């Protein structure tokens, strides 16, 4: 049974939603913008591929761990203040990263950037779901569209600015996030009459993961994100091995990848979930992504093959990002902010593990194909988790009678 499609036009949203969405685009640009400049950073700062991959790990690990605490913080200082603190941290640490002189400095400053990212992204997801018109499905599609657009534009901006200097993308992100800060300040208004939010306990996201539905979705996202970041973080080095290391060329390649993510997250994912269960979509599409990484392992020495597979992988990633997020937000009756904190935290930790492990495997086995084989394995595990846990995902599939109110206040705590 398919879930009910979103109602109304996704484009008819309050101005506050668009302000958050714009800042989301810029925030997600921070994930992909370093892709085209990884070889340049390694060369300029005399860093090994593993050290360079740590730019992803520190950023994603801090983002993931801190996301467990964002619902606790936002219920005390408010969603808007949490968003602004997160944006301000990104502005500062992205700017400082651009001023660094060693790879260790950049790695450390990316951790501070990740802290700001955690405060912003997790709160932004709950805020968009709470403020958007047309239902939760429309809100999540808009959020994942921002993710896809950010991932698309990030490598392009990284390539264009990185062609001048590897420092350029960091300064560019800092400037764009400052614009996002101003947009949130001026456009996000709290309702005139609003009940005082109940404070979320610090333990709420962790206890939320004890709920079978959310636990299954978080575990799926953990392994899925490993496969995701094998494709995103390792492929620049695989392309370098076949002769492509120019920042602008890599930027164009990953722009195509990110554009594919954006298109399928907005258009294809809703079409599929309107016709079949969300879990069915996951069980079908995750193995398709595994096949893409299998082919990347087999054709790792082919430039054309890698480029084509990267873009095709983006098509599947867009579908999966949207459907996984929808499932996690609908899998339990937990408040949106709590579910978002728990799911997003585990999701980003998975992404933090993959980049340095991919580089280690390539070095250990002496081939750029090894990380892609690892990607195949973790994606198979993600599929098995959904298959084996499907009986607990009735709510995520929209098959239970009780539905969560979309207009639920973002910062309502778990009163259990």
Automatic annotation (TrEMBL):
Keywords of the record: Membrane, Transmembrane, Transmembrane helix
Transmembrane segments: 15-34, 54-74, 81-99, 111-133, 140-162, 168-188, 209-235, 247-269, 281-299, 305-324, 345-366, 372-389
Primary location class: membrane
Subcellular location(s) of the protein: Cell membrane
Domain Major facilitator superfamily (MFS) profile: 16-394
Topology in membrane: Multi-pass membrane protein
Domain of life: Bacteria
SUPFAM superfamilies given in the database record: MFS general substrate transporter
A family per Pfam: MFS_1
Name of protein: MFS transporter
Originating species: Gryllotalpicola reticulitermitis
Lineage, broadest ranks: Bacteria, Bacillati, Actinomycetota, Actinomycetes, Micrococcales
């Amino acid at each position: 049974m398919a879930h009910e499609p979103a109602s109304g036009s996704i484009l008819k949203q309050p101005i506050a939603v668009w302000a958050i969405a714009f800042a989301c685009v810029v925030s997600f640009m921070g994930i992909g913008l370093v892709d085209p400049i990884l070889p340049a950073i390694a060369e300029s700062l005399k860093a090994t591929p593993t050290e360079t991959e740590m730019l992803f790990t520190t950023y994603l690990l801090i983002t993931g761990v801190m996301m467990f605490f964002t619902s606790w913080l936002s219920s005390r200082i408010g969603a808007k203040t949490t968003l602004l603190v997160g944006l301000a941290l990104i502005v500062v640490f992205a700017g400082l990263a651009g001023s660094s002189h060693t790879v260790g400095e950049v790695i450390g400053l990316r951790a501070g950037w990740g802290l700001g990212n955690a405060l912003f992204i997790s709160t932004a997801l709950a805020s968009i779901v709470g403020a958007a018109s047309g239902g939760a499905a429309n809100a999540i599609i808009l959020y994942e569209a921002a993710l896809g657009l950010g991932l698309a534009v990030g490598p392009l901006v990284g390539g264009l600015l990185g062609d001048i200097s590897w420092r350029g993308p960091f300064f560019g992100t800092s400037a764009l996030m400052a614009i996002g800060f101003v947009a949130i300040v001026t456009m996000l208004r709290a309702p005139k009459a609003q009940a005082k939010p109940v404070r979320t306990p610090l333990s709420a996201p962790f206890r939320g993961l004890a709920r079978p539905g959310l636990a299954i979705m978080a575990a799926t996202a953990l392994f899925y994100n490993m496969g995701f970041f094998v494709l995103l973080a390792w492929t620049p080095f695989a392309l370098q091995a076949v002769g492509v290391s120019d920042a602008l060329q890599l930027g164009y390649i990953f722009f195509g990848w990110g554009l594919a993510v954006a298109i399928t997250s907005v258009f294809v994912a809703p079409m599929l979930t309107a016709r079949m269960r969300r879990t069915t979509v996951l069980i079908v599409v995750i193995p398709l992504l595994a096949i893409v990484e299998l082919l990347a392992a087999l054709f790792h020495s082919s430039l054309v093959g890698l480029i084509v597979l990267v873009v095709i992988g983006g098509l599947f990633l867009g579908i999966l990002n949207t459907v996984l997020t929808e499932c996690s937000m609908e899998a339990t009756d937990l408040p949106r902010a709590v579910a978002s904190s728990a799911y997003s935290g585990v999701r980003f930790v998975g992404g933090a593990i993959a980049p340095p492990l991919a580089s280690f495997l390539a070095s250990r086995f002496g081939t750029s194909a090894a990380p892609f084989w690892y990607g195949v394995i973790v994606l198979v595990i993600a599929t098995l988790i959904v298959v084996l846990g499907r009986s607990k995902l009735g709510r995520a599939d929209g098959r239970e009678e009780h539905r969560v109110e979309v207009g639920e206040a973002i910062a309502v705590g778990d009163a259990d």
